[in-house]
Amino acid sequence: MDITPYREFAKEKLGFDFNNIDLLVTALTHRSYVNEHKQVHEHNERLEFLGDAVLELVSSDFLFRNYDQPEGVMTAIRAALVRTESIGDAGKELGYEPLVRLSKGEKHGSERAHDVILADCFEAVIGAIYLDQGYDVARDFIYKHILVKTDAIIEEGLWRDPKSYVQELAQKVDGVTPVYRTLKEEGPDHDKVFTVGMYVGDKLKGVGTGHSKQEAQTKAAEEGVRMYNRKLKS
Among the options 123, 132, 222, 223, which is catalytic? Predict the structure, then answer.
């Protein structure tokens, strides 16, 4: 295979050359690709396991050193930082999606499945960087792409349970408890997408989509939290 795109990605996006570029290739190789290509023997799950541990250590150390908060609060902030959506978005920003090796079936999978794969790859890339470049480089990578978002998450209250928090804000500002209404259902039963609106009184305050009503409600609540926080600051 041509490894030039992987070397170029490392140099341009990560800022260094891999000593062992095979580690990066493996980090971006999904199990389904190995199942379909018998000449390939390694996929990214072991690197993902390692990267997940490095990510948890680095983020825990960062929060401990920089935020004087109780254990429960720091745990919630860390969870918001490293949840699938957050690290999947970081992967999209890095732009490694075209380099991810998938089976033909997975390439045509659902958006939700792709988001999980991108998040898993991000953790595997951390594992690859840690093995190839050491702890300090892996830490700096995590700082740049994940921990930089910490202040915004704290400021917007996104580490809190969104539905509970938006209810608190709505009652404080408008004196009304939010309600959720399903606006749309699309797609086949095995991959349905729900669109939910969060209403305060008769006003739409947030809209979210997800593969379950609960997920869509949570995203609508998150949008509502951002709206109320902007209102309270103005």
Answer: 123
